[in-house]
């Protein structure tokens, strides 16, 4: 059984703990190192790595601290160029090239954002299968046999339309982030037969409604839903 904990989610920072009971890892490290330590009860030495989706600070802020702590960071070449090409714990990954972290088989896949951005399909030797999707206008891929889904649910079109944001800002949000409407499209398109839980991530402070989003996804899927 996969354990998931949200240490932080949103534009101020993103960081999630995921373990299959054998290999604990972080998804993102976009918060301060001390906050990560507190969130993990200061057991950071148990981590087997950190997967980072893209170069924006709310996803990669603590990379230097993880490296100093001896934790491997799996990321794109763009991130390696930013944080130090020569560091032996910065490990390059590529879209659609599988790699392994302990008991996890990890397949990165490309997403739609304003920089190179990767989602992760993670299959455990213990049988669980997780998909992580964030900071993307949509996801074109379909997955079979998912047991756990972590997916961005940043805004709703109606709330965004009613907001006082500049028109260009609204367009940028739509181009780079996933709405509740797109989340539901993704869920309708995928095999949910083994899905145990859904985590809704990276909700906007101004253009989202956590209770509404949770209720709509639960109604659509009949699955357990958490809002990070």
Could you list the spans in which at least 5 consecutive residues all have pLDDT below 50?
none
* Amount of beta strand: 25-35%
Mean pLDDT: 96
Please report the number of helical segments: 8
Alpha-carbon distance between the two ends: 19 Å
Strand count: 13
**Helicity range:** 25-40%
**Content-based structural category:** alpha/beta
What gross morphology would you assign?
globular
Rg over alpha carbons: 17 Å
User: What's the main sheet like?
Assistant: 7 strands, mixed
Order of helices and strands: EEEHEHHEHEEEEEEHHHEHE
What's the arrangement of strands in the largest beta sheet? 7-8-9-10-11-12-13
Description:
- The longest helix has 12 residues, at 210-221.
- Helix content is 27%, strand content 26%.
- It has a seven-stranded mixed sheet with strand order 7-8-9-10-11-12-13, with helices on one face. A six-stranded mixed sheet has the order 1-2-3-4-5-6.
- It is globular, with a radius of gyration of 17 Å.
- It has 228 residues and is of the alpha/beta class.
């Amino acid at each position: 059984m996969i354990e998931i904990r949200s240490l932080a989610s949103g534009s101020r920072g993103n960081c999630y703990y995921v373990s299959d009971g054998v290999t604990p890892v972080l998804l993102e490290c976009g918060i301060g190192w001390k906050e990560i330590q507190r969130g993990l009860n200061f057991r950071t030495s148990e981590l087997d790595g950190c997967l980072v989706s893209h170069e924006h600070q709310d996803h990669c802020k603590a990379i230097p601290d993880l490296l100093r702590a001896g934790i491997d960071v799996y990321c794109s070449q763009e991130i390696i160029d930013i944080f130090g090409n020569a560091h032996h714990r910065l490990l390059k990954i590529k879209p659609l090239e599988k790699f392994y972290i302990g008991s996890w088989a990890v397949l990165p896949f490309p997403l739609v954002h304003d920089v190179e951005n990767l989602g992760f399909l993670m299959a455990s030797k213990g049988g669980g299968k997780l998909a992580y999707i964030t900071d993307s206008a949509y996801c074109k891929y379909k997955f079979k046999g998912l047991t756990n889904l972590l997916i961005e649910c940043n805004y709703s079109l109606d709330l965004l339309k009613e907001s006082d944001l500049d028109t260009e800002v609204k367009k940028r949000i739509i181009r780079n982030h996933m709405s509740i409407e797109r989340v539901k499209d993704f869920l309708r398109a995928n095999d949910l037969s083994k899905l145990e839980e859904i985590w809704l991530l990276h909700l906007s402070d101004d253009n989202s409604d956590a209770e509404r989003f949770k209720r709509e996804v639960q109604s659509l899927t009949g699955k357990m839903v958490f809002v990070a």
